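Format notes (please read before filing issues)

Several people have asked whether sequences and structure tokens are stored in separate files. They are not. Every record keeps both together, in the order shown below: the sequence lines, then the token lines. Line labels are part of the format and must not be stripped during preprocessing.
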Amino acid sequence: MESITTPVIRQYLAYLNGSDYKSAYIRRKVNSLKSMWNYLVDAEYIDRSPLRRIPTPKKEYKVPICLTTVEMEALISASEQGRSINQAFRNRAIMSVLIHTGVRRQELLDLKLEDIDLENSVMQVTKGKGNKMRLIPLNSSAYDAIKDWMELRPECRHNYLFVSRHGGRLDKSSLNRNEIPPTVETFSFICDHSNSAI
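Then the structure lines:
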């Protein structure tokens, strides 16, 4: 134990940093080492930890995906190609809601007909993060897309807004088959509203 000093730990971290390991992997290594040495100090096996002055590597944050208005419209249009009329209108509504309201995928899948208030141009999300209910305004693009879809939506045994081609409730696997990138909905919403504020 005595041979493991702060300089030795620094050399080990320099090796990790020079070996193309991801920062998340290095952070886990440092945290594991700190936990082990803190335990040894608490158990009085050693007097102090050689990692007491070693900072934990900062977590890296990925740059958000930002789409221009033209790119967002192209993404929406691409979801309609090669589909039946009903599927095309449904997909346009799905993409418009994701892009223009910023809801999460599961929130979109949980939307029911009674959650949509076209008269006041709002929709209610009742199963959001933390199970909090909130009202989200609909801009003209989302409003028109939802309205068009609701007029074409087939009669079903359930009251979920979006349905599969067989009339069942749309689920995550069906949504993934529409090739909607997982982070587009949130970051496109941020960029869309940031551009509007300029």
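For reference, the curators noted about this record: The chain is about 50% helix and 5% strand. The first helix runs from residue 6 to 17.
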